[in-house]
Amino acid sequence: MRYSRILIPTIKEVPADAEIISHQLLLRAGMMRKIASGTYTYLLLGWRSLLKITSIVREEMNAAGAQEIMMPSLQPMELWQQTGRNVDYGETMCHLTDRHGRENVLAPTAEEVVTFLAAGEINSYKQLPFNLYQISPKYRDEFRPRFGPIRSREFIMKDAYSFHSSPESLEETYRVMYDTYCKIFARCGLEYVIVEAETGEMGGSGSHQFTIPCESGEDTIVYTQDGSYAANIERASVDPVAKQTANEEIPAMEEVHTPNVGTIEAVCDFLKTKPEQMIKTLLYSKDDKIIVALVRGDHEVNEEKFKIVAGGGKIELAPWFKIVDTTDAKVGFAGPVGLSKHVDKMIIDHSVAAMVVGVTGANKTDYHIKNVVPGRDFQLEGDNIIVADIRNACEGDTYNGKKLLFKKGIEVGQVFKLGTKYSEKLNAKYLDENNVEKACLMGCYGIGINRILASAIELNNDKDGIIWPINIAPFEVIVTCVNHDDEEVAKAAEDIYQKLLKNNIDALLDDRPLRAGGKFKDADLIGIPIRITVGKRSLADGNVEVKLRRESEGEKVKVENTLVRVNELINKLRS
Predict the structure, then answer these.
(1) Is 408 a residue whose pLDDT tops 80?
(2) How many folded domains does the chain comprise?
(3) Residue 244 within a domain
(4) What is the pLDDT of residues 243-262, one digit of tens each?
């Protein structure tokens, strides 16, 4: 393609609303433009990279035996109501009502639709296993879209779904997809980490997440130095804190007046204590039940762990009026003393159970209690009391005795063992060898195409712009014609460009009537891996300059050897 005929609207200034480097560079390099919050148009350069990522994904999925299909983006709400995930997704779903009054959603994912499809087609175990996938837009009404393609309202996802008659068959496909993902991300030029993950709204029995380590990521990877354990923050387990012992007898509880002091920080400041000496009491609602979580003041409830211990289902922080009704106090003054008999379940984190003494709310407006001893002043055992790991891992924690470390990352893919969560509810069943009806076991495998694009830029950039991995670059080579008004130079640049095209090398010819400096800056900004510079001075000696985007200096190459050298560099970059 010729630069002069393409819309590549590069800009010098960093866009004010672009927080991270990939978002900034995608806008500055003219690869995408914002239409509304979390909604983008991809221009030619950005779309070409997305198509190359999609092609890699498709090639590897097909090689793994998956079958590509296309499912509708418009999905009837009834399917989501049958699985109960309309409640799980809640306001994240994009709803619309058609002219007949039927409620629909724009696909945030496709478990319901593909299971409905399978239910109408599967009869016998002889049809299993099979793996269906699609590459299509998905829609999620994010509360706070941010970071460009990393958290947007519309995005492209490869989602695959497998159906099985045995756990062994599911495990086999799960491992094939696991290995396939490794191949995909390697071909895209990404350095990735695989961590154990929670299944979340997807459900199921097991999951692994593929994460790109980088400081701008929204996910937190928790791992041990020796590599024996890695998980995302929602999944990461921690060793229980050793039970502490008191050096002296602890006085009886003491009620303290704390007017208008309801937050951990405010209480600590008022009572001259520390967050780790506080017992934080959070009330959650599950249907018409109240479930309490107790964590230390310096810890955060891990809602995924908490939901599992609480028995699953839709669990959310209780509204203020339920808190007031349960505790007889305003929000901010709840505490565990005497509370277990007024709630359906109390789940106590290990770190709270290990405390010698703490400060907590008094279940009385404007009052807290000092000298609260777990096990003495509130129960650690009982029919509705559970002690468990329900908090986020943090600095200083260990797992299996090994120190936990933390780093940020971007999730680009995840694989799940769904079990029969969807097949039972949507009647995707088969007859086994003994003519007994059973629900299909399912697996699910997702990749964020746009996130691969953003992650590649986060990992590959410098002060001048993007440095694309060769396999997903919008073009492999840019031919920069320095003296376009010189017939000899223009002809030499055109000849090189045509030879590249004839040899299936994806090339862009910069034939614009601009100064060399401006062309070089644009070439660096858009990040094409190889630049061939054709100029009057070097051409007089029969040379062109060939330069890798990753390197500061180029090399002189004879015009007749240009094609050979470029092929060598492409092979080097792909290896």
Answers:
(1) yes
(2) 3
(3) no
(4) 877 778 899 999 999 998 88
